Amino acid sequence: MTTLKLNKLSARQHKFVRALAASGVRGPVVSRQELKSACDASQIYACPPSWITQDSSRALDMRGEYDLPELVELISAEGVPQVVRDTDEMLAAPPSTIGLKGGANAPTPVAASANLAASIMGATGGDRATLIPNKIKTYVPWGHFDSIKKIIDSNMFYPVFVTGLSGNGKTTGIEQACAASGRECFRVNITKATDEDDLLGGFRLIDGETKFVYGPVVEAMKRGAVLLLDEIDLAGLGIMCLQSVLEGKGVFLKKTNEWITPAAGFTVFATANTKGKGSDDGRFIGTGAMNEAFLDRFPVTMEQEYAPRSTEKKIVTKAMKSLNAEDKTFADCLTKWAETIRKSFFEGAVDEIITTRRLIDIVKANAIFGDKMTAINMAVSRFDDETKEGFLSLYTKIDAEVVMAPEGETSSEGGASSDCPFE
Q: Treating both helix axes as pointing N-terminal to C-terminal, what angle do 356-369 and 372-380 enclose, rounded to 10 degrees?
C-alpha cells in the first residue's frame, strides 16, 4: 500500500516536490543536480534542501542520489504537474493537448489525476502507488537484460519484439530493467479479445456521468513511460490500432477528436512465445499469424533462450535463500535435470519441457513440504503419465539422494552429498 509520505510534508516541501515533477523528474531516485535545477527554476529554495540531502534515510549508495518516494506519490495521485503558460505558448502547444477538430465542443477526457491513481493501484494489486516495478531482490540479470536497459536508459523510441519459449524470464527481464532505471512500466496482457477500446481508451460511466478515460497505451505515451505488450502473439486484428504508435508518431483518438503525441522516453516492448507466425506444434494455443506490416514496425527482435545452467543455478539458489531453504546439491541437480530434458525436447525425444519458472515452483514446494520428490512430483503431474514417470525417473538417476516412492507417499532420501553426481 502507498506510504502516504506526501501528506507529512510542509506546504513549502510539497510545493518543491511539485516543482521537481513539473521539471520532468519522475523519481523515486533524485540526483543532486536535479534538485539544484528545480531550485533554480522554482526559486522555492536557494539550494538543494537539507530535509532531503541531510536525511540519512534518503541517501542512497550512489553519491549524490536520494530517495524521494513523495515524488512518485504526487505524480501517481495528481498526474504530472504542468507549468503555467501564457496565451501565446498555449497556441503553440503540441497536438497532444489540443483537439484537432471541434475546439471547445470536443469531449473532455478524464484527467490523469484520480482515475490514473486508482488504475495504478488496481494494476499493481494495491501494493504500490507507482508503475515503477519493484526490484526483485532475487533477480539475476542475464541474457538481453543489459541491452534492454540500454534502450530504456537511452530515452529513445525504439520498439523491441522479445520472443522465446514460456517461463524463461522475458517479461520479468523487461520489468526489472525498468525497475533498475526507475522507469514506469505500463504492462498490458494481450488476449484475442483485446481491442482499441482496451488499449487507447473509451467511454466509461464515472459518478453517474459518461466520460472518456484514456487507455494504458495513451497514458504511457503521455507520461513518457515504457509500454509492455505481453503475449502479443495472442492478439486479434484489434492490435492494428497501434500502427502509428509503433512508428513513434502518436495516435489519433477518434472518439475525442484529439491527437496524442508521445512524451520523451516513451517506447514499446512486446513479448511473445512465437515470432508472430503462429504455433505449428500446438503448444501455444491461441497464437496466430500476425500482420506482417505490424511486425515490421519493430526495428529489432530479441530471441531469448533458457538461461545457461550456471546462470539458472544462481536463479534457483537465490530463490532457495529467499525461502530459507538453501540446498546447493538440490539446485545443482535440478538445473542438470532441466538441462537434460530441454536437450531431449529440442532433439524431438520428448514433447514437454521444464521451464525456469517450474524450477522455482519446485523450490517453493520443497520449502513447504520438505521433500524433494514430493515437490517434483507436484510440478510434473500436469504432464501425461508416461512423460511424468519418465521425468521423475530421470531425476532419481541425477540425484543419488532420492528414490521414487509410490504416488501419494513421500520419498526416502539418503545422506547428503556435496555435488550433483550426474555429470
A: 140
Which residue in 364, 365, 309 sits closest to 338, CA to CA?
309
pTM of the model: 0.69
- Residues of the chain with pLDDT > 70: what percent? 80
> What gap in Å lies between CA 103 and CA 281, rounded to an integer?
53
Work out whether the CA dihedral 404, 406, 407, 409 comes out positive or negative. negative
Residue in 28, 42, 241, 44 with CA at minimum distance from that of residue 129: 28
Nine cell digits for residue 36: 539544484
Mean pLDDT of the region 99-111: 45
* Closest by Cα among 66, 80, 6 to 35: 66
The mean pLDDT of 294-316, rounded to a whole number, is: 96
Sign of CA dihedral 364, 369, 372, 378: negative
For residue 272, give the H/E element and its range: strand 267-272
CB 221 within 8 A of CB 74: no
Single out the residue of 171, 189, 188 nearest to residue 179, CA to CA: 171
- Cα distance between residue 6 and residue 26, in whole Å: 15
Pairing assessment for the beta strands 29-31 and 267-272 based on DSSP bridges: unpaired
The gap from C-alpha 50 to its chain's centroid, in whole angstroms, comes to: 34
The grid coordinates listed for 76 are 501517481
Backbone CA torsion sign across 68, 70, 76, 79: negative
Residues 6+ apart with CB under 8 A from 152: 177, 178, 181, 183, 226, 267
Q: Whole-number mean pLDDT of the chain? A: 83
> Residues of 131-166 as b/e, b for ≥16 C-beta within 10 angstroms?
bbbeeeeebbebbbbeebbebbeeeebbbbbbbbbe
DSSP letter at 104 equals: G
Whether residue 360 is predicted with pLDDT greater than 60 in this model: the reply is yes
Share of the chain above pLDDT 90, in %: 59
Residue-wise burial string across 370-398, b where 16 or more C-beta atoms lie within 10 A, e elsewhere: ebbbbbbbebbeebeeeebebbbebbbeb
H or E element in which residue 348 lies: none
